[in-house]
Design a protein that fits this description.
Length: 737
Amino acid sequence: MAAPDASPILQRTSSSLKPAMREKFVAIYEDIFALSSPVQLAREQGIAGRASLQRFWDELLLLKVNELYLAKCVASEPEDRLVGPLKHTVNDLFSACVRYLGDDNFIRVAHALETSSILLREIFRKRFNEQGFTIITLVAGSADLADSFFRKLIGESADLLARQDAPVTVKVLVLRLYLTILTATDNVNTNSIAAYFFVSNVFDPVVSALSARVPADRRRLELDAALVLILLLQWKESPNIYSERLCQPAAPLMPLLNSVHSLLLPAGFVPPAAAGQNGTDSRRSSGVMGGLFGTSTSSPGPPPPKEDPSTSDSKADTRDKQRCRSSAAVVLIYYLVHLSPVLKSMQAWRRSEDPSKSAAQAANPQTPTPAVGQSLSFLWMSAFRAFLSLCWRAFRALPLVVDSRRTSENGQSVQLSAGQQAAVLRAKTCLMILRVICEEPLIIEFLRKCDAAALPAFPNSGAASTLPPRSHSVKSQAQPVLSIILDLATDVLSLPPRGSFVDADLYSRAEAVVATIVVSSRGQEGVVSEAASGAQGLATQGFEWRRLWVVLSRICDWAGEVTALQKPGVTDLAAQSVAILEYILAEGQEILGSVGEVEALHASVMSNCLVFQKLMQAAQKQQEALTRGSGRSGREKRASFTGDFKMLNLTAVRNHYEVQIAAMGVRGVPSEQQAMAGVQKKGTAGLKFKSKPAIAAHAYAEGTSESRVLNGLARALIAEHRRLFWQDIPNILDFLM
């Protein structure tokens, strides 16, 4: 049956169409920034206008926030108008948002948080004459009100993080608000508003977000919470209450380690929940929300669309997200191992018992962990295994960074991309972590005895917990953890230093790991520890020492070029290489553990004797040039380069074997095979070493260079986080669907 013709009355030509109705949110904010809204009228009416203004805010904060339009409203206003006619209006907006953080309606709370974040983000992008002071007065109303305003803003939002009944979307918005404030400047230490986080302590509320009972909620919150803690831990302008908390033995390490391990796992992996941590708990935790709100805590709104694995864009996006998560885990691990006394003790470094039989979890079943009954040592050991796997992948990617930076046709060096710079910073941070761990002799002892295969790993964690492969000719079946660490450091030192990519700091940090392991094998007063005095040596049979001799000699060969010594950090790098060789020569039997390894080291020295001679000559020429320069300028005398290259033990080895090798008919520099034959024929009897240089004798201290690495990696993290994750917040209104 055909449809009847439409009535002529209902027909309308295109010329008579009415203009589309404006979105109510857009219409209201258009009036607000035109100074013709109830906000301005209520101010003119005084007390009589307060009742109508209350209804106005109640209605406005129920409307879905149009982020693009609100951001455009602030971005399009010039700075002089924001601090002039619009100052009171902007202040009223912030005051209303802060006031509604304690509202019983979570829709208003979420929209207040989202509005505050958008306004702050756009205001931070403005350029005022006195940036910090102007922004504080614009947001808080005046300098006198700033303390109370920001204390209430941070305190009220922190209470939301600690509430069990608050939806996960609200908690995500709180963390994004914190990140907006903390990232107002490239360096958190130059951020005047960040100082208010050290008046109102949010450590426990942020950690409580990491303790969400539902794994899906915890997964959604953990990256944002980790970034907030990382930025707060970088504060140096005043006593850092967050660092002090981590330094306490009673610091809440379990949720932090739980999050570290989760961040290291693949993006699609959700650790199994503990007993009782299921959807029922999610519904019970909704508390005062009740009704339809109470069924959506673990999955607010519709699930995100599944990525199509067949498309390269989807795969690249997944890889980028996982790299961002793992980088956050690396920085958080650094602060944990650097600050926490528990992670420097045998309480964490021990073979964990069966997780299902842990008495600690049974005594405190409320502690959220990714599996039933996991102890702190099990969590840390499994996270450490995943960290070693990450180190291997991060160091393996470095040759791609090196190869990508070539000299262009006009001779100019090609700069590293932002992603490549982040890869180098991530590798440096991993090396800093390994050094801090290896400074404790008791931990060295554990790592030497512990077979890497015995480190626990979560089931189905995939490549995230795969140990580095044994790509070298090692005959032993066991693979001590310490040998893996030495292998990882040697992998970094194996990178070719020639070419346009020269980062001496990267090589120096790898050498510092090796030096720290060697020094930590001895007691405080020079007494050889059990780890070094055993028949199998420091790293047992699991490490190929010859690789280390080769890469150290290669670095000395490269540094022997005068042009190389002029580059920043190369002199210290070469001096450290020589010092490691000098030290191991003096302590060879105790460190290497066998006569064969000692002979191999001596043979390597003999086959590279011209390399060390060239390095000494280059250092002397460089010293002469600097001395002449300082003499002309009349400035203070420069330190002697030759004093940094004390090759007494290297010279002793050469003098001991050179006659024997010459008697064998070898002319010039012997090959390694010829040198080995001469060493074995001569023997080590009568060889006396003249010095035991102190390498890495000082304890690790976080200095300017370390802070620069951490700040740089944090900036790269925040940039990637904004690009990849800031569109993942579901609208609070989706809870009603």
